[in-house]
Amino acid sequence: MGPYVNGFETRLLELSYTPGTVRNALKDIGSIGRWLEEENLDVSELTKESLEAFVCARRSAGWRRVRASGALHLCSIT
Length: 78
Prior knowledge:
Elements: H1 2-14, H2 19-38, H3 48-60
Helix pairs in contact: 1-2
């Protein structure tokens, strides 16, 4: 996800998201990127369905605070 982080951060700030929201979104992107690597998936395979699989995988692994896939809609901001 590295090549996308700076542009994503810039875009969220342009859209007036708060610094805390931006920070949390960047953490989410990092978690998603690590999960994609674990699943041997390419960023091009990131879809609504794969985000839902990410959330399910994290919850199944015992993560208590996992954002719902709907909250990850920030990932689709262009």
